[in-house]
Prior knowledge:
Shape: rod-shaped
Number of domains: 1
Strand content: under 5%
Structural class: mainly alpha
Number of strands: 0
Helix content: 55-70%
Number of helices: 3
Largest sheet: none
Radius of gyration: 23 Å
Amino acid sequence: MSSDNHKTIVLSLPAAALLTISQAAIGCGIGILVAEKVAENRRSTAAVGMLCLAIATSAPAVVGVVVNVINGPESKLGARRRLRSIRDDSGLQPEQEVF
Length: 99
């Protein structure tokens, strides 16, 4: 039995690029850790550097997704903000008269 209870997340081009770079850095870091052809001290240093790069580049994408989930139009806060703007804005300019 399949369900369609998934949300589609749209990322901007910079966020998608950073996410792609971070995934590549994670793959490189793991590959370097398991490689046997590189000296142990150089392998560890390179792997830690790649993993730090991956964390640094994926942080903006993660923050963007979390902020969108919390403040996006589909969230409670987004719905409240939209309703408040509808209620506060009568659609008339201050100079116009109401008949």
